[in-house]
Design a protein that fits this description.
The protein is mostly helical. It comes from Cohaesibacter marisflavi. This is NitT/TauT family transport system permease protein.
Length: about 260
């Protein structure tokens, strides 16, 4: 009971902290607007109104949904493949050694290079999804492999002493430890997927938020540019507050019981 109360108070405090940071960002934004003028930084209130206009318009909301679908599809595909391969490499020293140069190569490859390759392979439609997949896969793979290799062996021995099945040991003993290492890489990969998909859309697609940014750039429309950015960042903050943080509290709850 007390633990849940502290968790609730902690979540409230985290929410107030996030709100305070947002207010601080808008305060500096207002100062930048008054200092440099609307061509460099538009008025925050006008940008917020433009965000509302974009969401209320069918094409604006459709662009946001298209970008969300691409980012989530690429991210979820990378999660499935990366977790499976990471588990295999974590339990195999040979695969772990062989995978290191490949992971280093994939992490060192800039997203813009993957976008060019994807354009040659898939054309405009498949480029954003593939780019998200190939740029987030190494992080998820490395996080999963690290979780397997860094798990507490004493807990495995304790589970073996109770003679539980391998499936039960994995679900109740090993998986929570693996997820605690995987989650930071998973959250980072999710945020990265949005940046990558918007970049791919900016260069290779005729729809999505990236295409909206490209259109705003052509029209030299700073307000629309900032409105698209605010819409995406706001969506990410909502997802973090209502999805990622509760999941993190749940998957790391075992640490409080140890």
């Amino acid at each position: 009971m007390i633990r849940h109360l502290f968790a609730f108070v902690g979540s409230l405090w985290s929410g107030w902290t996030t709100l305070s940071v947002i207010c601080l960002v808008f305060a500096f934004w207002q100062i930048g607007f008054e200092t440099f003028g609307p061509l460099v930084l538009p008025e925050p209130l006008e940008t917020i109104k433009t965000v509302g206009t974009l969401i209320s318009e069918s094409h604006g909301l459709n662009y946001i949904l298209i970008t969300s679908e691409r980012a989530l599809l690429g991210f979820l595909t990378a999660s499935c493949v990366g977790i499976i391969l990471g588990l295999m490499a974590g339990w195999s020293n040979t695969l772990s050694v062989l995978s290191r140069p490949l992971v280093t190569m994939m992490q060192g490859m800039p997203p813009i290079a993957w976008i060019v390759i994807a354009l040659l392979w898939f054309g405009g439609e498949g480029t954003p999804i593939f780019t998200v997949f190939v740029t987030t896969l190494p992080l998820i793979f490395a996080g999963t492999m690290q979780g397997v290799r860094m798990r507490d062996g004493n807990l495995d021995e304790m589970a073996d002493s109770f003679r539980i099945s391998r499936a039960e040991k994995f679900i109740h003993v090993q998986a929570p430890q693996i997820v605690s290492y995987l989650f930071p890489a998973w959250a980072t990969s999710f945020a990265m997927s949005w940046k990558v998909v918007m970049t791919a859309e900016l260069l290779a697609s005729g729809d999505g938020v990236g295409a909206g940014l490209a259109e705003a750039r052509v029209n030299i429309d700073t307000v629309a540019t900032m409105a698209w950015i605010v819409a995406v960042v706001g969506l990410l903050l909502l997802f973090e507050g209502f999805v990622l943080n509760p999941v993190k509290s749940h998957v790391e709850g075992w640490k409080n019981d140890v």
